[in-house]
Design brief:
The chain is 42% helix and 14% strand. The chain has 18 helices and 16 strands. The chain has helices at residues 3-8, 18-31, 44-51, 55-67, 98-101, 111-116, 120-124, 141-151, 166-178, 193-205, 220-227, 245-254, 276-289, 344-357, 362-373, 377-403, 428-438, 467-487, and strands at residues 71-74, 78-81, 127-128, 188-192, 211-216, 232-239, 242-243, 257-262, 292-296, 320-325, 336-340, 407-408, 417-422, 440-441, 443-444, 457-461. The strands form 4 sheets. It has an 8-stranded mixed β-sheet, sandwiched between helices. A 4-stranded antiparallel β-sheet has the order 12-13-16-15, with helices on one face. The protein has a two-stranded antiparallel sheet with strand order 1-2. β5, α11 (220-227) and β6 form a beta-alpha-beta unit. The longest helix is centred in the C-terminal third of the chain and has 27 residues, at 377-403.
Protein backbone atom coordinates (compact mmCIF):
# COMPACT_ATOMS: atom_id res chain seq x y z
CA UNK A 1 0.00 0.00 0.00
CA UNK A 2 1.34 3.47 -0.89
CA UNK A 3 1.22 6.50 1.37
CA UNK A 4 -1.39 8.01 -0.96
CA UNK A 5 -3.62 4.97 -0.43
CA UNK A 6 -3.13 5.13 3.33
CA UNK A 7 -4.10 8.79 3.38
CA UNK A 8 -7.15 8.10 1.22
CA UNK A 9 -8.27 5.46 3.74
CA UNK A 10 -8.56 7.96 6.60
CA UNK A 11 -12.10 8.01 7.97
CA UNK A 12 -13.99 10.72 9.77
CA UNK A 13 -16.20 10.12 12.75
CA UNK A 14 -14.80 6.69 13.63
CA UNK A 15 -13.78 7.70 17.16
CA UNK A 16 -10.15 8.54 16.42
CA UNK A 17 -8.93 12.03 15.59
CA UNK A 18 -7.86 12.88 12.06
CA UNK A 19 -4.43 13.86 13.40
CA UNK A 20 -3.85 10.45 15.00
CA UNK A 21 -4.87 8.69 11.78
CA UNK A 22 -2.49 10.84 9.72
CA UNK A 23 0.35 10.13 12.15
CA UNK A 24 -0.40 6.40 12.01
CA UNK A 25 -0.45 6.41 8.19
CA UNK A 26 2.96 8.09 7.95
CA UNK A 27 4.43 6.01 10.79
CA UNK A 28 3.44 2.75 9.09
CA UNK A 29 4.71 3.96 5.71
CA UNK A 30 8.07 4.90 7.23
CA UNK A 31 8.47 1.72 9.27
CA UNK A 32 7.56 -0.50 6.32
CA UNK A 33 9.94 1.31 3.98
CA UNK A 34 7.33 2.88 1.75
CA UNK A 35 8.86 6.24 2.62
CA UNK A 36 12.64 5.99 2.42
CA UNK A 37 15.12 7.75 4.75
CA UNK A 38 15.75 11.24 3.47
CA UNK A 39 12.55 11.31 1.38
CA UNK A 40 10.72 14.63 1.43
CA UNK A 41 7.14 14.71 2.68
CA UNK A 42 4.46 16.86 1.02
CA UNK A 43 4.26 20.47 2.28
CA UNK A 44 1.60 20.89 4.96
CA UNK A 45 -0.62 22.86 2.59
CA UNK A 46 -0.42 20.06 -0.01
CA UNK A 47 -1.12 17.42 2.65
CA UNK A 48 -4.16 19.43 3.78
CA UNK A 49 -5.48 19.58 0.22
CA UNK A 50 -4.86 15.87 -0.42
CA UNK A 51 -6.71 14.79 2.71
CA UNK A 52 -9.28 17.56 2.96
CA UNK A 53 -8.13 18.70 6.40
CA UNK A 54 -7.27 22.04 7.94
CA UNK A 55 -3.62 23.09 7.37
CA UNK A 56 -3.22 23.28 11.17
CA UNK A 57 -4.11 19.58 11.38
CA UNK A 58 -1.39 18.80 8.84
CA UNK A 59 1.07 20.91 10.87
CA UNK A 60 0.13 19.04 14.07
CA UNK A 61 0.68 15.73 12.26
CA UNK A 62 4.22 16.65 11.21
CA UNK A 63 4.98 18.06 14.66
CA UNK A 64 3.95 14.75 16.24
CA UNK A 65 6.06 12.78 13.73
CA UNK A 66 9.03 14.96 14.69
CA UNK A 67 8.38 14.31 18.39
CA UNK A 68 8.42 10.58 17.61
CA UNK A 69 11.81 11.00 15.95
CA UNK A 70 10.52 9.90 12.54
CA UNK A 71 11.02 13.14 10.58
CA UNK A 72 13.17 16.26 10.64
CA UNK A 73 12.23 19.71 9.38
CA UNK A 74 14.30 22.64 8.16
CA UNK A 75 13.11 26.22 7.63
CA UNK A 76 12.68 26.79 3.91
CA UNK A 77 13.61 23.19 3.09
CA UNK A 78 10.61 21.10 4.14
CA UNK A 79 10.04 17.94 6.18
CA UNK A 80 12.04 14.77 5.55
CA UNK A 81 12.03 11.17 6.75
CA UNK A 82 14.81 10.92 9.29
CA UNK A 83 17.96 9.14 8.19
CA UNK A 84 18.48 5.91 10.13
CA UNK A 85 22.08 4.99 10.80
CA UNK A 86 23.17 1.64 12.23
CA UNK A 87 24.19 2.14 15.85
CA UNK A 88 27.84 1.28 16.52
CA UNK A 89 28.73 -0.50 19.75
CA UNK A 90 29.73 2.27 22.18
CA UNK A 91 31.67 -0.25 24.26
CA UNK A 92 34.34 -0.37 21.57
CA UNK A 93 35.50 3.12 22.52
CA UNK A 94 35.87 6.19 20.32
CA UNK A 95 33.17 8.66 19.35
CA UNK A 96 31.52 6.97 16.34
CA UNK A 97 28.41 6.20 18.43
CA UNK A 98 27.66 9.93 18.67
CA UNK A 99 26.69 10.03 14.99
CA UNK A 100 23.80 7.70 15.80
CA UNK A 101 22.57 9.70 18.78
CA UNK A 102 22.94 13.23 17.41
CA UNK A 103 20.22 14.69 15.17
CA UNK A 104 21.14 15.74 11.62
CA UNK A 105 23.32 18.84 11.59
CA UNK A 106 21.50 22.07 10.82
CA UNK A 107 22.65 24.08 7.84
CA UNK A 108 23.94 27.26 9.44
CA UNK A 109 26.02 29.30 7.06
CA UNK A 110 27.13 32.56 8.63
CA UNK A 111 30.23 34.64 8.30
CA UNK A 112 31.36 33.46 11.74
CA UNK A 113 30.94 29.77 10.87
CA UNK A 114 32.83 30.36 7.63
CA UNK A 115 35.69 31.97 9.54
CA UNK A 116 36.02 28.92 11.79
CA UNK A 117 36.90 26.80 8.77
CA UNK A 118 39.95 28.90 7.94
CA UNK A 119 43.34 27.42 8.77
CA UNK A 120 44.86 29.36 11.71
CA UNK A 121 48.06 30.06 9.77
CA UNK A 122 46.01 31.56 6.95
CA UNK A 123 43.83 33.55 9.36
CA UNK A 124 46.88 35.22 10.92
CA UNK A 125 47.77 36.92 7.62
CA UNK A 126 44.17 37.52 6.51
CA UNK A 127 42.57 40.92 5.95
CA UNK A 128 39.11 40.22 7.44
CA UNK A 129 36.60 42.24 5.43
CA UNK A 130 33.99 39.82 6.77
CA UNK A 131 34.22 40.89 10.44
CA UNK A 132 31.46 43.15 11.73
CA UNK A 133 32.55 43.83 15.30
CA UNK A 134 34.55 46.81 16.60
CA UNK A 135 38.37 46.95 16.76
CA UNK A 136 40.37 46.86 19.97
CA UNK A 137 41.22 50.56 19.81
CA UNK A 138 37.59 51.61 20.40
CA UNK A 139 36.99 49.35 23.42
CA UNK A 140 36.63 51.47 26.62
CA UNK A 141 38.89 49.16 28.61
CA UNK A 142 39.93 51.58 31.36
CA UNK A 143 36.44 52.97 31.90
CA UNK A 144 34.78 49.56 32.11
CA UNK A 145 37.58 48.23 34.30
CA UNK A 146 37.00 51.06 36.75
CA UNK A 147 33.25 50.48 36.68
CA UNK A 148 33.67 46.75 37.31
CA UNK A 149 36.09 47.38 40.20
CA UNK A 150 33.67 49.84 41.75
CA UNK A 151 30.75 47.40 41.79
CA UNK A 152 32.51 44.09 42.35
CA UNK A 153 31.25 42.44 45.50
CA UNK A 154 29.35 39.49 46.88
CA UNK A 155 26.28 40.36 44.82
CA UNK A 156 28.38 40.09 41.64
CA UNK A 157 28.83 36.37 42.27
CA UNK A 158 25.19 35.57 42.92
CA UNK A 159 22.26 34.81 40.64
CA UNK A 160 20.26 37.78 39.46
CA UNK A 161 16.67 38.36 38.30
CA UNK A 162 15.60 36.67 35.07
CA UNK A 163 14.64 40.04 33.56
CA UNK A 164 18.02 41.59 34.42
CA UNK A 165 19.34 43.83 37.19
CA UNK A 166 16.99 46.66 38.06
CA UNK A 167 19.70 49.34 37.81
CA UNK A 168 20.68 48.24 34.28
CA UNK A 169 17.07 48.12 33.11
CA UNK A 170 16.56 51.66 34.43
CA UNK A 171 19.61 52.90 32.50
CA UNK A 172 18.46 51.14 29.33
CA UNK A 173 15.05 52.77 29.70
CA UNK A 174 16.73 56.19 30.02
CA UNK A 175 18.77 55.48 26.89
CA UNK A 176 15.57 54.52 25.08
CA UNK A 177 13.85 57.75 26.09
CA UNK A 178 16.74 59.74 24.62
CA UNK A 179 16.02 57.91 21.38
CA UNK A 180 12.31 58.75 21.46
CA UNK A 181 10.93 55.65 23.18
CA UNK A 182 8.57 55.66 26.16
CA UNK A 183 9.61 52.36 27.73
CA UNK A 184 9.98 52.01 31.47
CA UNK A 185 12.38 49.56 33.10
CA UNK A 186 9.54 47.05 33.41
CA UNK A 187 9.28 46.79 29.62
CA UNK A 188 12.87 45.54 29.30
CA UNK A 189 14.41 42.06 29.56
CA UNK A 190 18.21 41.92 29.62
CA UNK A 191 19.72 39.16 27.48
CA UNK A 192 23.09 37.62 26.81
CA UNK A 193 23.65 39.53 23.59
CA UNK A 194 21.23 40.37 20.79
CA UNK A 195 21.45 36.85 19.39
CA UNK A 196 19.83 35.41 22.49
CA UNK A 197 17.28 38.20 22.36
CA UNK A 198 16.31 37.27 18.80
CA UNK A 199 16.17 33.57 19.65
CA UNK A 200 13.93 33.88 22.71
CA UNK A 201 11.63 36.38 20.98
CA UNK A 202 11.23 33.95 18.07
CA UNK A 203 10.50 31.08 20.46
CA UNK A 204 8.01 33.18 22.44
CA UNK A 205 5.96 34.00 19.34
CA UNK A 206 6.41 31.24 16.78
CA UNK A 207 5.39 27.63 16.47
CA UNK A 208 6.25 25.08 13.77
CA UNK A 209 4.47 25.96 10.55
CA UNK A 210 4.08 29.67 11.34
CA UNK A 211 5.12 32.11 8.63
CA UNK A 212 7.70 34.86 9.13
CA UNK A 213 8.49 37.64 6.69
CA UNK A 214 12.14 38.68 6.79
CA UNK A 215 14.30 41.08 4.83
CA UNK A 216 16.41 39.42 2.17
CA UNK A 217 19.31 40.01 2.45
CA UNK A 218 19.45 40.00 6.23
CA UNK A 219 21.67 39.31 9.22
CA UNK A 220 22.40 35.59 8.95
CA UNK A 221 21.79 35.16 12.69
CA UNK A 222 18.10 35.84 12.02
CA UNK A 223 17.97 32.75 9.83
CA UNK A 224 19.60 30.71 12.60
CA UNK A 225 17.20 31.97 15.27
CA UNK A 226 14.17 31.20 13.12
CA UNK A 227 15.47 27.73 12.28
CA UNK A 228 15.04 26.52 15.86
CA UNK A 229 11.30 27.33 15.85
CA UNK A 230 10.23 25.30 12.83
CA UNK A 231 8.67 28.43 11.35
CA UNK A 232 8.80 29.13 7.63
CA UNK A 233 10.73 32.21 6.55
CA UNK A 234 9.67 34.16 3.46
CA UNK A 235 12.10 36.69 2.03
CA UNK A 236 11.04 40.28 1.33
CA UNK A 237 13.28 42.35 -0.98
CA UNK A 238 15.20 45.38 0.27
CA UNK A 239 15.90 48.48 -1.80
CA UNK A 240 17.16 52.00 -1.07
CA UNK A 241 14.04 52.72 0.97
CA UNK A 242 14.45 49.60 3.08
CA UNK A 243 12.02 46.69 3.29
CA UNK A 244 9.74 46.57 0.23
CA UNK A 245 6.42 46.99 2.04
CA UNK A 246 4.52 46.58 -1.23
CA UNK A 247 6.00 43.10 -1.62
CA UNK A 248 5.07 42.36 2.01
CA UNK A 249 1.49 43.44 1.28
CA UNK A 250 1.36 40.88 -1.56
CA UNK A 251 2.63 38.15 0.79
CA UNK A 252 -0.10 39.00 3.26
CA UNK A 253 -2.69 38.24 0.58
CA UNK A 254 -1.43 34.64 0.40
CA UNK A 255 -0.09 33.90 3.89
CA UNK A 256 -1.05 34.46 7.50
CA UNK A 257 2.13 36.10 8.75
CA UNK A 258 2.88 35.98 12.47
CA UNK A 259 5.98 38.12 12.56
CA UNK A 260 7.98 40.55 10.41
CA UNK A 261 11.68 40.71 11.18
CA UNK A 262 13.71 43.70 10.02
CA UNK A 263 16.40 46.29 10.68
CA UNK A 264 14.73 49.61 9.85
CA UNK A 265 17.76 51.76 10.70
CA UNK A 266 21.15 51.05 9.08
CA UNK A 267 20.19 47.63 7.81
CA UNK A 268 22.84 44.89 7.80
CA UNK A 269 24.17 44.34 5.14
CA UNK A 270 23.00 47.24 2.88
CA UNK A 271 23.10 50.10 5.38
CA UNK A 272 19.74 51.44 4.12
CA UNK A 273 16.97 52.92 6.30
CA UNK A 274 13.27 52.17 6.11
CA UNK A 275 11.77 55.35 4.62
CA UNK A 276 9.23 57.39 6.61
CA UNK A 277 6.38 56.47 4.24
CA UNK A 278 7.17 52.77 4.46
CA UNK A 279 7.48 52.95 8.25
CA UNK A 280 3.92 54.24 8.48
CA UNK A 281 2.67 51.70 5.94
CA UNK A 282 4.33 48.79 7.77
CA UNK A 283 2.84 49.81 11.11
CA UNK A 284 -0.56 50.14 9.45
CA UNK A 285 -0.28 46.60 8.06
CA UNK A 286 0.69 45.25 11.49
CA UNK A 287 -2.43 46.80 13.01
CA UNK A 288 -4.64 45.63 10.16
CA UNK A 289 -3.40 42.03 10.07
CA UNK A 290 -2.39 41.57 13.70
CA UNK A 291 1.27 40.56 13.44
CA UNK A 292 4.36 41.37 15.49
CA UNK A 293 7.30 43.38 14.18
CA UNK A 294 10.74 42.60 15.56
CA UNK A 295 13.08 45.58 15.15
CA UNK A 296 16.81 44.94 15.39
CA UNK A 297 18.65 48.13 16.32
CA UNK A 298 22.17 46.79 16.83
CA UNK A 299 23.76 49.05 14.19
CA UNK A 300 21.29 51.93 14.47
CA UNK A 301 23.50 54.20 16.62
CA UNK A 302 26.38 54.04 14.12
CA UNK A 303 25.07 56.73 11.77
CA UNK A 304 27.79 58.92 10.28
CA UNK A 305 25.68 60.81 7.70
CA UNK A 306 22.25 62.40 7.96
CA UNK A 307 19.79 62.68 10.81
CA UNK A 308 19.26 59.96 13.40
CA UNK A 309 15.91 58.21 13.07
CA UNK A 310 13.48 57.34 15.83
CA UNK A 311 13.13 53.60 16.51
CA UNK A 312 10.16 51.97 14.80
CA UNK A 313 8.93 50.87 18.24
CA UNK A 314 8.10 54.50 19.05
CA UNK A 315 5.35 54.40 16.40
CA UNK A 316 3.58 51.25 17.64
CA UNK A 317 4.90 49.80 20.93
CA UNK A 318 1.97 47.36 21.07
CA UNK A 319 3.18 45.71 17.84
CA UNK A 320 6.95 46.38 17.69
CA UNK A 321 9.43 44.42 19.80
CA UNK A 322 12.83 46.10 20.00
CA UNK A 323 16.05 44.06 20.14
CA UNK A 324 19.36 45.82 20.78
CA UNK A 325 22.84 45.38 22.25
CA UNK A 326 26.14 47.15 22.91
CA UNK A 327 28.14 44.65 20.86
CA UNK A 328 28.84 47.04 17.96
CA UNK A 329 29.10 50.29 19.89
CA UNK A 330 30.82 49.42 23.18
CA UNK A 331 32.18 45.89 23.71
CA UNK A 332 31.03 42.61 22.12
CA UNK A 333 32.57 40.43 24.84
CA UNK A 334 30.30 41.81 27.57
CA UNK A 335 27.31 40.18 25.81
CA UNK A 336 24.87 42.85 27.01
CA UNK A 337 21.70 42.79 24.96
CA UNK A 338 18.07 43.50 25.70
CA UNK A 339 14.48 43.27 24.49
CA UNK A 340 11.83 45.98 24.89
CA UNK A 341 8.23 44.76 24.53
CA UNK A 342 4.71 45.50 25.73
CA UNK A 343 1.75 43.32 26.62
CA UNK A 344 1.47 39.55 27.23
CA UNK A 345 4.39 38.83 24.89
CA UNK A 346 6.77 40.39 27.44
CA UNK A 347 6.00 37.66 29.99
CA UNK A 348 6.43 35.03 27.27
CA UNK A 349 9.87 36.44 26.44
CA UNK A 350 10.90 36.44 30.12
CA UNK A 351 9.75 32.82 30.41
CA UNK A 352 11.85 31.83 27.40
CA UNK A 353 14.81 33.66 28.91
CA UNK A 354 14.34 31.74 32.16
CA UNK A 355 14.34 28.44 30.31
CA UNK A 356 17.39 29.41 28.27
CA UNK A 357 20.02 30.41 30.83
CA UNK A 358 18.15 31.59 33.93
CA UNK A 359 19.78 35.01 33.91
CA UNK A 360 22.65 36.85 32.26
CA UNK A 361 25.96 37.20 34.16
CA UNK A 362 25.67 39.63 37.04
CA UNK A 363 29.02 41.44 37.02
CA UNK A 364 28.85 42.65 33.38
CA UNK A 365 25.35 43.98 34.07
CA UNK A 366 26.56 45.82 37.17
CA UNK A 367 29.55 47.29 35.33
CA UNK A 368 27.47 48.41 32.35
CA UNK A 369 24.82 49.97 34.61
CA UNK A 370 27.53 51.96 36.45
CA UNK A 371 29.22 52.95 33.17
CA UNK A 372 25.93 54.19 31.70
CA UNK A 373 25.00 56.03 34.91
CA UNK A 374 28.36 57.85 34.73
CA UNK A 375 27.30 59.26 31.34
CA UNK A 376 29.95 57.43 29.32
CA UNK A 377 27.87 56.22 26.39
CA UNK A 378 27.59 59.43 24.36
CA UNK A 379 31.35 60.03 24.39
CA UNK A 380 31.98 56.39 23.45
CA UNK A 381 29.49 56.69 20.62
CA UNK A 382 31.15 59.86 19.33
CA UNK A 383 34.56 58.12 19.23
CA UNK A 384 33.12 55.05 17.52
CA UNK A 385 31.23 57.11 14.95
CA UNK A 386 34.36 59.09 14.08
CA UNK A 387 36.26 55.85 13.46
CA UNK A 388 33.40 54.46 11.39
CA UNK A 389 33.21 57.61 9.28
CA UNK A 390 36.92 57.37 8.45
CA UNK A 391 36.77 53.69 7.60
CA UNK A 392 33.56 53.92 5.60
CA UNK A 393 35.15 56.64 3.50
CA UNK A 394 38.23 54.46 3.00
CA UNK A 395 36.02 51.55 1.91
CA UNK A 396 34.09 53.65 -0.61
CA UNK A 397 37.33 55.09 -2.00
CA UNK A 398 38.84 51.61 -2.34
CA UNK A 399 35.75 50.24 -4.08
CA UNK A 400 35.76 53.19 -6.49
CA UNK A 401 39.45 52.76 -7.24
CA UNK A 402 39.60 48.99 -7.65
CA UNK A 403 36.07 47.74 -8.33
CA UNK A 404 34.15 50.53 -10.07
CA UNK A 405 33.96 48.63 -13.38
CA UNK A 406 33.00 45.36 -11.68
CA UNK A 407 30.32 46.21 -9.09
CA UNK A 408 27.51 48.54 -8.18
CA UNK A 409 27.30 50.06 -4.71
CA UNK A 410 25.12 52.62 -2.93
CA UNK A 411 26.99 54.47 -0.17
CA UNK A 412 25.23 53.81 3.17
CA UNK A 413 24.72 56.52 5.81
CA UNK A 414 26.45 54.36 8.42
CA UNK A 415 26.39 50.91 9.96
CA UNK A 416 29.31 48.55 9.52
CA UNK A 417 29.12 47.23 5.97
CA UNK A 418 29.03 47.99 2.26
CA UNK A 419 26.84 45.81 0.01
CA UNK A 420 28.21 45.09 -3.47
CA UNK A 421 26.28 43.81 -6.47
CA UNK A 422 28.56 42.35 -9.12
CA UNK A 423 27.88 43.15 -12.77
CA UNK A 424 28.51 39.50 -13.65
CA UNK A 425 26.98 36.48 -11.97
CA UNK A 426 30.03 34.68 -10.62
CA UNK A 427 30.50 31.69 -8.31
CA UNK A 428 30.37 33.16 -4.78
CA UNK A 429 31.87 30.07 -3.15
CA UNK A 430 34.80 30.18 -5.55
CA UNK A 431 35.24 33.91 -4.88
CA UNK A 432 35.29 33.20 -1.16
CA UNK A 433 37.86 30.40 -1.47
CA UNK A 434 40.04 32.33 -3.91
CA UNK A 435 39.82 35.37 -1.64
CA UNK A 436 41.18 33.35 1.28
CA UNK A 437 44.03 32.16 -0.91
CA UNK A 438 44.74 35.81 -1.78
CA UNK A 439 44.64 36.85 1.89
CA UNK A 440 41.22 38.52 2.14
CA UNK A 441 37.91 37.27 3.54
CA UNK A 442 34.49 38.60 2.53
CA UNK A 443 30.92 37.49 3.25
CA UNK A 444 29.17 35.85 0.26
CA UNK A 445 25.80 37.50 -0.29
CA UNK A 446 23.92 34.21 -0.63
CA UNK A 447 24.72 33.39 3.02
CA UNK A 448 22.55 36.38 3.97
CA UNK A 449 19.60 35.67 1.69
CA UNK A 450 16.38 33.84 2.54
CA UNK A 451 15.88 32.83 -1.09
CA UNK A 452 18.35 31.96 -3.83
CA UNK A 453 19.61 35.31 -5.18
CA UNK A 454 19.38 36.22 -8.85
CA UNK A 455 22.56 38.31 -8.71
CA UNK A 456 25.98 37.87 -7.13
CA UNK A 457 26.50 39.97 -4.01
CA UNK A 458 29.31 40.43 -1.48
CA UNK A 459 29.29 42.13 1.92
CA UNK A 460 32.43 44.06 2.85
CA UNK A 461 32.77 45.06 6.50
CA UNK A 462 34.94 48.03 7.42
CA UNK A 463 34.82 48.60 11.21
CA UNK A 464 37.45 46.10 12.33
CA UNK A 465 40.19 46.91 9.79
CA UNK A 466 42.35 49.99 9.28
CA UNK A 467 42.04 52.21 6.19
CA UNK A 468 45.31 50.78 4.85
CA UNK A 469 44.03 47.23 5.30
CA UNK A 470 40.75 48.18 3.62
CA UNK A 471 42.52 49.46 0.50
CA UNK A 472 44.78 46.41 0.28
CA UNK A 473 41.93 43.98 0.95
CA UNK A 474 39.73 45.49 -1.76
CA UNK A 475 42.66 45.47 -4.18
CA UNK A 476 43.14 41.74 -3.55
CA UNK A 477 39.41 41.13 -3.96
CA UNK A 478 39.43 42.94 -7.31
CA UNK A 479 42.23 40.66 -8.51
CA UNK A 480 40.22 37.61 -7.46
CA UNK A 481 37.09 38.81 -9.29
CA UNK A 482 39.04 39.62 -12.46
CA UNK A 483 40.73 36.22 -12.37
CA UNK A 484 37.36 34.46 -12.19
CA UNK A 485 35.99 36.59 -15.02
CA UNK A 486 38.96 35.56 -17.15
CA UNK A 487 38.37 31.90 -16.36
CA UNK A 488 34.74 32.36 -17.38
CA UNK A 489 35.81 34.05 -20.63
CA UNK A 490 34.31 37.40 -19.64
CA UNK A 491 37.60 39.27 -19.42
CA UNK A 492 40.58 38.58 -21.63
CA UNK A 493 43.07 41.38 -21.62
CA UNK A 494 42.37 43.61 -18.60
CA UNK A 495 45.34 43.88 -16.23
CA UNK A 496 45.22 42.84 -12.59
CA UNK A 497 44.25 45.67 -10.23
Amino acid sequence: MTIEQRLAAIERGEGRTITSQLVEAFTTAIEEGELAPGEKLPPTRTLAELTGVNPLTATRCYRRLAELGLVVAGVGRGTFVRERRPAPDAREGGTAWQNYVLPPAREIETARSLERTIDPAVREALIPLSVGYPPNETLPVQELSAAASAVLGERSLRYGPVEGLAELRRELAKLGRRRGLSDEAGHIVVTTGARQALTIVARAILRPGDVVACESPTFSGFIHSLGATGARALGVPVDREGLDVGALRQLLQRHEISLVLLQPRLHNPTGFDLSPARRQELVGLAREHGFFIVEDGVYADLRVRGEDLTPLRALAPEHVIMVDSFSKTVAPGLRIGWVAASGPVLDRIATEKSGDDGHSPTLPQQAMARWLADGRYEAQLARTRAMHAERLEAMLEAVERHLSDLVSVTPPPGGGHVWLTLHDNLDEDALYRDGLAAGVSVTPGAKMMIDRPERTHLRLSFAYVTPAQIHEGVRRLASVIRAQRRRDGRERSMPLA
